[in-house]
Amino acid sequence: MASHGSTVEMRLLRQRYQDPARNHLAASRPCGRASGGTANSGRCTAATCYGILAVLWSGLVQGEEIDFQGEIRPILVEHCLQCHGPDSAARESDLRLDLESSAIGRRDSGTPAIRPGDAAGSPLMRRVRSQDPDFMMPPPTHNKPLSERQIELLERWIQEGAPFESHWAFRAPQRAELPPAAGVAGAHPVDRLVARRLNEPGWSLATAAPEAVLCRRIHLDLVGLPPSPQEVEVFCQNAETGLSAAVQQRVNELLASPHYGE
């Protein structure tokens, strides 16, 4: 099922192709056949393509809100929570950046570590941006410096109000509004939700798999082994009169099999 993971992947791709240090193709020699022939031209073409991709990715994600769970929490976990997390024995300055009440609450110094809507005035960002080894965070001894991209994400997140989100497992589920049944998604509610999420960047659902492929997937999911040629043939014959019924019958048969779950 599609999720916010696809948005994160787009951000990561944009980061890769906009960062000259990581995109070695963008740093190639100028275009032309001199001293490079067709190979140099190919290098230039690849660099041009990656540049176009970067612009496209930028357009897709520009203006989107920061995803706390997918973008901010991983930064905090990797770089901050060792000293400012749930472990009271290792915690520094009695500051927890994994709890909103501690991160934005008033401290003994009088200033919260994070001031929602004011990235420049947040002590957290002043330490993150500092070049003083005795003041900067994470400290150099931590050996996990933040990248410029991560720093920019933190700044944007704070500037947007520093909204925290608890883990999805601790949030009450809410019924999503179903989009209308149309197109390839059909009437199934899961397919309709997936199709709506894919449509945002202009993607679409894959076409329906052949009956033999569906049979193989069912077998691998339920018993861990592919079907025999005879089982595939029977499934395909049943699917001719009704695919849904054929799937339900094959699933029920495998669930009743002693090999189920092996």
Q: How would you state the average pLDDT, rounded?
A: 79
Query: Helicity level, as a percent range?
Result: 40-55%
What Rg do the Cα atoms give?
A: 26 Å
Residue ranges: pLDDT <50 for 5 or more in a row? 1-10, 12-62
Q: How many individual helices?
A: 11
- Count structural domains: 3
Q: Gap between N and C termini, in Å?
A: 25 Å
Main pleated sheet:
none
Reading the helices and strands in chain order gives HHHHHHHHHHH
Structural class based on helices, strands and sheet pairing: mainly alpha
Find the count of extended strands (DSSP E, 2+ residues).
Answer: 0
Strand content: under 5%
Oligomer: single chain
Write the layout of secondary structure elements.
Elements: H1 5-18, H2 37-61, H3 68-79, H4 81-84, H5 100-103, H6 123-129, H7 148-159, H8 189-199, H9 211-222, H10 229-241, H11 243-255
Helix pairs in contact: 1-2, 3-7, 9-10, 9-11, 10-11
Describe this structure in words.
With 262 residues, the chain is an all-alpha fold. The protein folds into three domains: 5-61; 68-170, no CATH class; 211-255. It has helices spanning 5-18, 37-61, 68-79, 81-84, 100-103, 123-129, 148-159, 189-199, 211-222, 229-241, 243-255. The radius of gyration is 26 Å and the shape is elongated.
Produce a short descriptive summary.
By secondary structure, the protein is an all-alpha fold. 48% of the residues lie in helices and 0% in strands. Helix 1 (5-18) crosses helix 2 (37-61).
